[in-house]
Design goal:
Blueprint (H helix, E strand, L loop, with lengths): L8 H13 L1 E3 L6 E3 L12 H6 L5 H7 L16 H15 L9 H9 L5 H15 L29 H15 L10 H5 L3 H11 L11
Antiparallel strand pairs: 1-2
Helix pairs in contact: 4-6
Length: 217
């Protein structure tokens, strides 16, 4: 089940019943159907925070959180990019009856430089568009999306920090308060309300060294 965190509350109640009782009724049906299923759910939201905000049922959260798997975003596992590009090129070439069997190395190298804020779905969309515009057997990609966004400005003309800059400053402040400690009850992850692995991943991306935060003013 993808994007479980976006499920409406009334639907969450129905899913919880299926997981607890192992039964459901079809829409418009009158017969109760028994099921024996294993559910794998995915989300990019912080479900603990969604529970606190009243957007996600706590009982359903604990039902789903039996064996959590935390996956790194694409920008933190760039070694997967060539394989994913090859897979998506094959997928959409077959779908569009094209024979694209060459992926120039400069294309892969440019992908390595991109942060992929939309994760794997964004890469898939880029490749789908690329397959559409490709005329021959060599993949062609429009890299207009790689243009770096400029910092915004507020109404008084002052430079406004980017989202990543604001995140970096916030994380550094938390690390200074915890003397460089990331995990544990007294760590920055707990202070920021995120999972340890999520914070480590974000620190790696933003170039933050926790050891530099220890005993710093």
């Amino acid at each position: 089940m993808d994007e479980i965190g976006e499920m409406p509350l009334d639907m969450q109640t129905k899913l919880l019943r299926v997981l607890q009782e192992g039964e459901f009724e079809r829409v418009g049906g009158t017969q109760t159907i028994k099921v024996d299923v294993r559910v794998i759910a995915a989300t990019n939201r912080d479900l603990e925070k969604e529970v606190q905000d009243g957007n996600f049922r706590e009982d359903l959260y604990y039902r789903l959180n039996v064996f959590p798997i935390f996956n790194l975003p694409l920008r933190d596992r760039r070694e997967d990019i060539p394989l994913l590009v090859s897979h998506f090129v094959q997928k959409y070439s077959d779908k569009m009856n094209k024979s694209i069997d060459k992926i120039p190395q400069p294309i892969i190298e440019k992908f390595y430089q991109y942060q992929f804020p939309g994760n794997i779905r964004e890469l898939e969309n880029i490749i789908e568009r690329a397959v559409i515009i490709t005329k021959g057997n060599k993949l062609e990609v429009d890299f207009g999306f790689l243009k770096k966004k400029k910092k915004g400005k507020s109404e008084n003309g002052k430079t406004f920090p980017t989202f990543e800059e604001a995140q970096r400053d916030h994380i550094i402040k938390a690390l200074k308060l915890t003397n460089g400690r990331v995990s544990g009850d007294l760590g920055a992850a707990r202070l920021l309300g995120v999972h340890d692995k999520t914070l480590f991943s974000k620190m790696k991306k933003l170039g933050i060294n926790k050891d530099e935060m220890a005993n710093s003013d």
